[in-house]
Amino acid sequence: MLVKQLxxxxxxxxxxxxxxFTALRxxxxxxxxxxxxxPPVFTQGLAGLANHVLNPGTTPVIATNRxxxxxxxxxxxxxxxxxxxxxxxxxxxKEYVYRLEESVIRTLAHFxxxxxxxxxxxxxxxxxxxxxxxTALTGPVSPNDPFKGLGKISALGIKVSRHCSYHGLALNxxxxxxxxxxxxxxxxxxxxxxxxxxxxxNTSWEEAADVLAHKLSALLAP
Length: 222
Prior knowledge:
Layout: E1 2-8, H1 11-24, E2 32-37, E3 41-44, E4 61-63, E5 70-73, E6 77-83, H2 86-89, H3 93-110, E7 116-118, E8 121-127, E9 150-161, E10 164-172, H4 205-219
Parallel strand pairs: 1-2, 3-4
Antiparallel strand pairs: 2-6, 3-5, 6-10, 7-8, 8-9, 9-10
Helix pairs in contact: 3-4
């Protein structure tokens, strides 16, 4: 898998480039992983509802064909876009999503942070009170609030066309988190978003991107 560092690039240009790459690829086209960050933008998935965008202000809201609902992208967040032929790699979408999430969990573990999955809520979460605790989540603290005590550190949204993937995942490293308060992140009102810096990990975008790229390369292998 060829890893490409794109730097700070507009979301719409990258979205179009992913679509073009996927539309033009053949059975022989090599797989790639694009790493980048975007200027501030809200993106809306196919399941997204307009009322989950509470107050976009001057930040653009872009409709996309990925799965999921609304999220925010901005500087200080690692965007990872795996452009893979899943059929050639030998696994289906459910397994692909699991491997993406596991890559984030292992990236967080590299920094001493324990990441968690929440049932029926794709992405990775951390315990706000103790992000370094290893105790597994056994279920929601409150049935009425499955995210009580948790912060979302990584969002996930993919598209598969002709067995080939694009879009991907976001890992919050050190960014302005205020825009997340102007949406219902991933469709959940009141869900708190966090980054590595907020929970005490002061690392660079480059280091986080490099670790994530290595974990993705290993876990997305055929």
